[in-house]
Every structure is written in C-alpha cells, then in structure tokens.
Amino acid sequence: MNKYHYLIVGSGLYGATFAYRAKQMGKRCLVIDKRPHLGGNVYCENIENINVHKYGAHIFHTSNKEVWDFVNSLVEFNRYTNSPVANYKGELYNLPFNMNTFSRLWGVKTPAEAQTKIDEQKAEAVAALNGCEPANLEEQALCLVGKDLFQKLIKEYTEKQWGRDCKDLPAFIIRRLPVRLVFDNNYFNDKYQGIPVGGYNKLIDGLLEGVECKTDVDFLKSEYKDWKKYADKLVYTGAVDEYFDFKLGKLDWRTVSFKTRIEDTPNYQGNAVVNYTSHNEPYTRVIEHKHFEMFGQEVYDCPKTVVSEEYATEYKEGMEPYYPVNDERNNSLAEEYRKLAEQEEGVIFGGRLGQYKYYDMAPVIEQVLNLEL
Ligand SMILES: Cc1cc2nc3c(=O)[nH]c(=O)nc-3n(C[C@H](O)[C@H](O)[C@H](O)COP(=O)(O)OP(=O)(O)OC[C@H]3O[C@@H](n4cnc5c(N)ncnc54)[C@H](O)[C@@H]3O)c2cc1C
Predict the structure, then answer these.
(1) How far is the CA of 181 from the centre of ligand 1 (A)?
(2) 242 C-alpha vs ligand 1 centroid, how far in Å?
(3) For this structure, is 288 an active site residue?
(4) Are 85 and 274 in contact (CB under 8 A)?
(5) Taking the C-alpha atoms of 296, 302, 303 and 305 in order, what is their torsion angle to the nearest 10 degrees?
(6) Per-residue pLDDT tens digits of the chain, which is 373 residues long
C-alpha cells in the first residue's frame, strides 16, 4: 500500500487548503515545497514585530460567505479595509476615484458638480477624436475619465507599470475606469475583507496543522518526482510548463520586485498602500506593512516600521513568476499545456502556477472547497 493518499507539491493556499480538506476526510498527505518556508506567496516574514508580506501585499476579499466563514473558522480576520492613497508630485488623492478624489482635484462639493466636471472633460476627449475610435490607451482613458484624472493618476503610473508610453499601449488594457460619486475610499466592492489577526502565517498554520510537510524540497529535482512510489495521487501547484519539462515551450510571466527597509519611525506614510503616480519616483507603490494589522494607537506602540517599494520589473529566468501574461501566444500555449495536464493520470494541477491563471486568494480556496475528493 502507498504511504500517502496525496503528495501535494506546493504549500500555498491551493496546496494547504487541499491538505486541510484531505486531512478532514482522514486521508494521509505529504506537502512539499521548494521554498524554505510554507505558505507560498501569502507567507509573511516577521521584522520588528511587523508581518511583512514578502511576496507582495495581500488583502483578503470576497463576497462568498462559505469561503469567508471557512477562513474565519481557522483564524480571526481584522477590520482592514483597503483604501489606497495616490501621491502625484506631493499632492495626495484618495483612491479609487471617488468624491474625496474629485473634491481634492477640483474643489467640487456635490456629486452633481463632480459629474458635470467629468462629463465636460470626457466630451473634450471624444470631440478630439473626430469620430474615430480610441487608438491607444491614452485616448481610451481620456474618453473614460477626462484629462485631469488621466494626467495625475493614470498616465505616468501606467507608463511605469508597462515601461512604455500610454500612446504606445493598446486601448483594450483599460476597458473600464470606475468612478464613484460617493465619499467611499474602500477599494474593493466585496462584502467581506480583512487580514488574518497575527498575519497570513496563522491561516497557513491552521490549514496545515497535523499535516506532514517538508520545505526546501523541489519536486522536480527530488526522489518525489517518482511520486507513484510515495502516493496514490499527486496535487501539483508548481508551474505547469516546468512539470512537462517545457516540452511545448516556455510560458512567460510578469513579475514585480521589492526593496524593503526598516524606518526608524512608528508611522512613515500613515497608510498601508501609497501609489506613486508620477515619473518623479521610479517605484509604483510603497507598502507600509504595519498598517495591515495595527490601527490607531497600536501603530505607535510599535516604535519602528517596515516599508517596501514596489518596482515593475521585466521577468527573467530565476525571478518569481507572479502574473501570467495574457496575450495570444501565452494563452494558446497554456491551453496546450492544460490539455497535456488533463491526460496526466492521477495528477491534479491546481492554483496560479499549475493552471497558468491569475486568481485572487478567495477563488483559489473556493476552487478547492468545491473539489470532489
Ligand atoms: C504580487 C501579488 C499580489 C497579490 N495580492 C493579492 C491580494 O491582495 N489579494 C488576493 O486575494 N490575492 C492576491 N494575490 C494572489 C494570491 O497570491 C494567489 O491567489 C495565491 O497565492 C495562490 O495560491 P497558490 O497556492 O496557487 O500559489 P502560490 O502561493 O504561489 O504557491 C505555490 C507554491 O508551490 C511551490 N512550488 C512551485 N514549484 C515547486 C516545485 N517544483 N517543488 C516544490 N514546490 C514548488 C512554490 O514554492 C509555492 O510555495 C497576489 C498575487 C501576487 C503575485
């Protein structure tokens, strides 16, 4: 008899939730991860008593009550509400675009005044096109929200993200730019959001409690590659092209890089997320991690702070593969790999890397909760 029912490659939210469910059903699992820690991209490193989101800021949000109840059964979530601020050459604006933004931008006081201003600027942009369709991202964004929002909050930020002028980017990248005529800085529209009290590692600990785990083990370079010797089934959440030894070609990824430092002040920027929307700074965002979990006086009870500058970075071999590239070549190559994956007997390909699809955390958990084990 095989030792394990499941060998699970990857201890991110997909692998860990799978292991939790399998354990609940009395199945024996082994979870392996090539990183020196468990948790995949939600892993946090504790620096100066602050949970630092090592692989990028993660905010849990969902409207799915089943998922929300599930994660709350493992760890309590705090009241964090994502409300980013934009810094344009020292001018601060609330995001997403809402009455606070418009009032700061134009001095308007009512939704009707804001709507008039937006409509005027949109009409100007549409008139400038002389009946033509927007030919690039710049024209598209101008038609959607007008020149002031575009110039101060979209143009240079987008150029930093893509490394190209907005005139050289296709219009389809921005299909919608929602504006809200209410004083509401809550970024997400979901019913529930928050951060686990004590950080994401607590969530992972809850999911993996009582499950056998090994870190620093690369499935593809270890004895476990011959997985049938060890388990009845394999759950693989690594990159799908790597599993097949890149035999159809390599999938491309997008990545971001972070420069993290300790600041000798209890409160550096007063908010977890500040977007830098001009070319004056080379980074796109600065994350101040303590604000995800410390509120009010708690911020000052912790004398230092940790901040991460976020840089848009061209992906190269060896970097963290963060986002799938949504273009024709990669979409069709991924489809070919998915076909191969379907034929692979006894193997479940899951998660962001295994399916080559961007998922937020909640949908990953939802997928695993809905699996028939
Ligand atoms: C920069 C960034 C910011 C994000 N912010 C948010 C957010 O604010 N809110 C939100 O809901 N979602 C966010 N997400 C999405 C979230 O990170 C994912 O939904 C979640 O991490 C998916 O979990 P996963 O298990 O599929 O992948 P991962 O967390 O990537 O886990 C995969 C694991 O597999 C391991 N692995 C890979 N190959 C091998 C191998 N050969 N052998 C052994 N182990 C291997 C890896 O080391 C990794 O630990 C963000 C994603 C990124 C990239």
Answers:
(1) 35
(2) 16
(3) no
(4) yes
(5) -90
(6) 569 999 999 999 999 999 999 999 999 999 999 999 999 999 999 999 999 999 999 999 999 999 999 999 999 999 999 999 999 999 999 999 999 999 999 999 999 999 999 999 999 999 999 999 999 999 999 999 999 999 999 999 999 999 999 999 999 989 889 999 999 999 999 999 999 999 999 999 999 999 999 999 999 999 999 999 999 999 999 999 999 999 999 999 999 999 999 999 999 999 999 999 999 999 999 999 999 999 999 999 999 999 999 999 989 988 999 999 988 999 999 999 999 999 999 999 999 999 999 999 999 999 999 999 8
- Strand ranges inside the chain, DSSP E: 4-9, 29-32, 44-47, 50-53, 60-62, 85-88, 91-94, 192-194, 212-214, 231-236, 253-263, 273-276, 285-288, 305-313, 323-324, 347-349
Nearest CA to ligand 1 atom 12: 360
Residue nearest (by alpha carbon) to ligand 1 atom 21: 41
Contact 97, 153 (CB under 8 A): yes
Ligand 1 centroid to Cα of residue 112, in Å, is 43
Q: Hey, what CATH class is 4-80+192-248+324-369 in?
A: alpha beta
* Ligand 1 neighbourhood includes 324 CB (under 6 angstroms): no
Q: Which atom of ligand 1 is nearest to the CA of 39?
A: 49
Burial class (CB in 10 A: 0-12, 13-18, 19+), 96: buried
Residues of the chain with CATH 3.40.50.720: 4-80+192-248+324-369
Contact status, residue 229 vs residue 4, Cβ threshold 8 Å: no
Check pocket membership of 58 for ligand 1, CB cut-off 6 A: yes
Q: Which of 20, 93, 180, 293 is catalytic?
A: 180
Measured in angstroms, how far is the CA atom of residue 360 from the centroid of ligand 1? 9
User: Hey, which of 361, 365, 368 would you mutate to test ligand 1's pocket, going by the most ligand atoms within 8 Å of its Cβ?
Assistant: 361
